[in-house]
Amino acid sequence: MLSRVADSIYWLNRYIERAENVARFVEVNLNLLMDNPVGVAQQWEPLIAVTGDRDVFFQRYDRATAERVLDFLTFDQKSPNSILSCVRAARENARSVRETISSEMWEQVNAFYLQVEEAAQAKDSRDSYAFYSEVKMASHRFAGVMDATLSWNESWQFGQLGRMLERADKTARILDVKYFLLLPSAQEVGTPIDNLQWIALLKSASAYEMYRKTEQIISPAGVAKFLILDAQFPRSIKFCLKWAEDALRQIAGVSASSSPLSSQRALGRLRAELEYITLDEIFQGGLHQFLDDFQLRLNTVGDCIYADFIALPTEATEKTAGKASNRVASKAATNKAASKTTNKTTKEVAGSPIALGAQRQS
Question: Taking 90 as the threshold, does the pLDDT of residue 322 lie above it?
């Protein structure tokens, strides 16, 4: 399989999943705005923190208002992780491998692209909640179409790998941001406001109903356990890593079983640790520290995948010539840069009595 094809299918799925997750992040705040009591301050900065784009945002704006944050995360062409930017990048990757993917996949990506472009031109905020819901459904449709129309060969496995890694990263980010940014003050831990925020977080991951089938009450420990360690919920970190590792094993093939690739070792270690760690051990070391380290190690996994399957050998790169080759190399570099989102998305809440682990020492 050509490395450019693998790279494009891998990032096609990551960008589609990223657009969906950005829509989920925005829905967190939209749900909170409807549920919060009168007088509770709106929280918009956490939304740009969860994508790792705080520095980019504040280079252009002096403060995070509802209008600015929503536009930055939804339709801003200069924002690398906006829904519009992600869908455009997904379409470009799909266009470059139209001979490999199914026609139904291309049609779905193109329809998704046209839908977002039309909304970007109109910028009608009166029905914003419906728009973000439709973005999520468009992502679901693409995943279903890919599963139903693409042979489950190396192409499908690269798509699955990209989707699961992106989903695991964003589940970790949104859980991390809730713990350190969304809570108005330490005194409100366990209050109805705190509970509303945890419910909104579950809903943003489409996890509320499944969570209530296993847990009787909404608690920080229960939510963290469900989103990190549940083996059956498809958006939990543990579930995503298991499926990502299976996909990577299929891609590497039997020849790599005796001598695992660097990407297999990095992902295998991460998955194995998550398989046997307990919630008490996570809290003992600190929930934020665990999630922050997880995001860094997931970036390392992405680097290893790029080195093992995508990057050209140095000698071959030096011999590469022609506009077409340069264009492929440029797109691969752009895709690789997209994995380098900032991991320092959260800040410690000094003096917080939340019994979820130690604070980082400055």
Answer: no
